[in-house]
Amino acid sequence: MEQLKNACLDIWAAGSDTTTNTITWTVLYVLHHPEVAIKMYEELDANIGGGRLITLNDKHKLSYISAVINETQRLANIVVNPFIHTTTTDVVFIPFGTGKRSCIGEGLAKTELFLFIANIYNQFEEYLQYRTVNFGCGAVRYEIS
Ligand code: HEM
C-alpha cells in the first residue's frame, strides 16, 4: 500500500508542475513575439474557427502551433540536466529525457500541452498592447507598449 501511495505521489509530482510551467513559458514567449501570435491566430482561423473545442483529431491541421510548443520546450528546458545522468555526445532537444529512465508521461504531456495551448489561443486574444517600430525597408519590430 505504501509503495502504491508513493508511486501515485511520484506521478502527480512529476506530472503537474512540468506541464503547467511549460504552458506558462509558452504564453510568456508568445507575448514577447506577437508575430508568432499572429501566425497562430491565422492557423486557428483557417483550420478551426472559434466556435468549438479543439481535439486531438485537429493536431495534423495545427502544425505551426505544434512547432511553437516544441520551440518553447527547446528554449525553456524545465528539467535541466535530467537528474544524475548525462549523455555521452552533444544532444539538442530531449525535453523528456532519453533511455531507460526517460519520462513515462511524455505522451500524456504532449497531449495536454497541445490541447491546452491550442484551445487557450483559440478562445482568447492577446491582451497586451503592441507598438510597431518600423525600420523602413520592410523591417518591422513589435514592442510591448
Ligand atoms: C512538459 C512536461 C514534462 C516534462 C518536460 C518532463 C520531463 C521529464 C524528464 C526529462 C524526465 C527524465 C528524468 C531522468 O532522466 O531521470 C522525466 C521523468 C519522469 N516523468 Fe516527466 N516530464 C513531463 C511530464 C510528465 C507527466 C505528465 C508525467 C506523469 C503523468 C511525468 C512522469 C514522469 C515520471 C514518473 C518520471 C520518472 C521516470 C523514471 O525514472 O523511470 N512527467 N520527465
Automatic annotation (TrEMBL):
Gene3D superfamilies: Cytochrome P450 (1.10.630.10). GO terms for molecular function: heme binding; iron ion binding; oxidoreductase activity, acting on paired donors, with incorporation or reduction of molecular oxygen, reduced flavin or flavoprotein as one donor, and incorporation of one atom of oxygen. Keywords: Heme, Iron, Metal-binding, Monooxygenase, Oxidoreductase. InterPro entries: Cyt_P450, Cyt_P450_CS, Cyt_P450_E_grp-I, Cyt_P450_sf, Cytochrome_P450_fam2. GO terms for biological process: organic acid metabolic process; xenobiotic metabolic process. The keyword Iron applies. It comes from the Eukaryota. PROSITE patterns: CYTOCHROME_P450. GO terms for cellular component: cytoplasm. Belongs to the cytochrome P450 family. This is Cytochrome P450. It comes from Diploscapter pachys.
